Amino acid sequence: MEKNKSLAHAGYLIGALLFVIPLCDALMRVWPMQLGNQNWRFQIVGGLSSITLVPLLGLLVGLVATGYVGNERARRSIGVFCFALVVVLVILAALFIADYFQMRASFPPRFQHAAMIASTTAVLKFVATIVVLALFGLAGLDRAGFRRA
Questions:
Q1: What is the pTM of this model?
Q2: What sign for the dihedral angle of Cα 126, 43, 85, 69?
Q3: What is the rounded distance in angstroms from the CA atom of residue 89 to the CA atom of residue 1?
Q4: At what angle do helices 53-69 and 5-29 cross, to 10 degrees?
Q5: Residue 149 falls inside a structural domain
Q6: Which residues contact 92 (CB under 8 A, 6 or more apart)?
Q7: CA–CA dist 58, 63 (Å, integer)
Q8: Residues of the domain holding 31
Q9: pLDDT per residue over 110-138, tens digit each?
Q10: Which H/E stretch holds residue 71?
């Protein structure tokens, strides 16, 4: 039975849209970028941790579409992209933690505990996202791909 390549192409497009649209929406809310502003960085990176699920679903849809038609080049490309995202998110998480420790004294005393809980939650979301991205990267670079035994 020949695989329906149009269905795979639709899967690629849906995966890309699921990945790009939430990130663009988040960036539009905080435009213009103020990378030198520690408060802005802390808020944007913390907010980014809350929107990672939909882009992860987009990557999953893309990986499944590559497995459906056996497109090894696209699968490897998604795998490499996922590992690149792992590196970016590790750096962002480290910067977020550094910004938190620099900013925590500026929080009013009654909000310091809540800020610590929110920051810890954001870091845990990043860790979970990094683990999933690493698994996607491994799946994308696996020589066997998604072939059935």
A1: 0.81
A2: positive
A3: 41
A4: 160
A5: no
A6: 45, 48, 126
A7: 9
A8: 5-141
A9: 888 888 888 888 889 999 999 999 999 99
A10: none
- For residue 55, CA distances in Å to 35, 116, 120, 128, 143 come to 23, 26, 21, 13, 24
Q: What is the pLDDT of residues 64-97, one digit of tens each?
A: 998 888 888 989 999 999 999 999 999 988 888 8
DSSP character at residue 143? T
Has residue 61 been placed in a domain?
Answer: yes
Residue whose structure tokens are 């590790």: 90
77 within some domain = yes
Closest residue by Cα to residue 141 from 73, 56, 61: 73
Per-residue burial over 120-135, b = 16 or more CB atoms within 10 Å of its CB, e = otherwise: eebbebbeebbebbee
Instruction: Count the domains in the chain.
Output: 1
Write the CB contacts of 80 (distance below 8 Å, at least 6 apart in sequence): 137, 140, 141
Give a yes or no: residue 148 inside a domain: no
Both tokens of 83, joined, read: 């590992």
Cis, peptide link before residue 108, omega less than 30° from 0: no
* 139, two tokens: 């799946």
